[in-house]
Specification:
4 helices, globular, 4 strands, Ribosomal Protein S5, domain 2, about 45% helix, about 20% strand, four-stranded mixed sheet
Length: about 120
């Protein structure tokens, strides 16, 4: 995923957490907040807590989520910053059920955010 589509600074994450809105599903929580540049590209930050597994497991799920997000960029509303949080249990479920299942979970949480 290109740098312009990423949230990387702590203050950006904090702004999304403090001032943004959120929706959640069984496996994911999505926070979003409009950023200064209304026509700008949507930016994503990922958070996978230590309770989700080892470092290898957490990094694997982050890679998979980034790839899914990249494929959905055309459908994501512009001008917003997003933080996607994986809940414990997601890595095991994604491993057992596959990439299509994980993509459906991301689409589900994005759909709830649009409503």
């Amino acid at each position: 995923m290109q740098r312009r589509y990423r949230l990387s600074r702590s203050r950006d994450f904090d702004a999304v957490y403090r001032h943004g809105r959120s929706v959640s599903t069984r496996y994911l929580v999505l926070y979003w907040f409009p950023h200064e540049d209304d026509a700008g590209d949507p930016r994503l930050g990922l958070a996978v807590p230590k309770s989700a597994g080892s470092a290898v497991t957490r990094n694997r799920i982050k890679r998979r989520l980034r790839e899914i997000w990249r494929s959905l960029l055309e459908e994501v509303p512009a001008g917003r910053d997003y933080v996607l949080i994986a809940r414990p249990g997601l890595p095991e479920a994604a491993e057992a059920r596959g990439a299509d299942w994980l993509r459906e979970r991301v689409v589900e949480v994005l759909g709830k955010a649009r409503a």
